[in-house]
Amino acid sequence: MTGKAETLKGRGRLIGPGFDSDISYELWIVTEAAGAPHMQDRGAAIEGLKTITGRVTLAGSTHAPFGQKLTLILEDGRKLSVLAQGDGRVTGTGGGFFR
C-alpha cells in the first residue's frame, strides 16, 4: 500500500443547526492507494480509503458544538461534512468534498 497526503489551509465558514461561524482551517487529507500494475504502467494504483482530519479556529471565543455534525465551507466553495471533536479538531465524514 502506498498513498498520498495533502494539506489545505484557508479561511471559510463552519455551519450547522443553530451554529454559523467564520473560521480559519487546516486540513490533512491522506488517501491510501493499492498497487495495480499492468503491462503499460507498472506504477499504476487504485485510490482507496481517504481520511480527512484537521483543525479549525473560530472567530471570537465561540466553540464548535462538541460531537455535532457540521458543514465546513472552504475558500474555493467546496463543502465538507465534519464532526466537531472539541479543541478545534474536526474529522471529515462521508465520501469527501461536495458542492
Account of the protein in words:
The chain is an all-beta fold. It has a single domain, classed as Thrombin, subunit H (Beta Barrel), CATH 2.40.10. Helices cover 0% and strands 62% of the residues. The chain has strands at residues 2-16, 19-35, 45-58, 69-73, 79-84, 89-92. It has a 6-stranded antiparallel beta barrel with strand order 1-2-3-6-5-4. Strand 5 (79-84) and strand 6 (89-92) form a beta hairpin. It is elongated and about 55 Å long.
Set out the fold topology.
Layout: E1 2-16, E2 19-35, E3 45-58, E4 69-73, E5 79-84, E6 89-92
Antiparallel strand pairs: 1-2, 1-4, 2-3, 3-6, 4-5, 5-6
Q: What is the helix content?
A: under 10%
Low-confidence segments, given as residue ranges, are: none
- The coarse silhouette is elongated
* Helix and strand run: EEEEEE
Global structural class: mainly beta
Could you tell me the CATH topology label.
Answer: Thrombin, subunit H
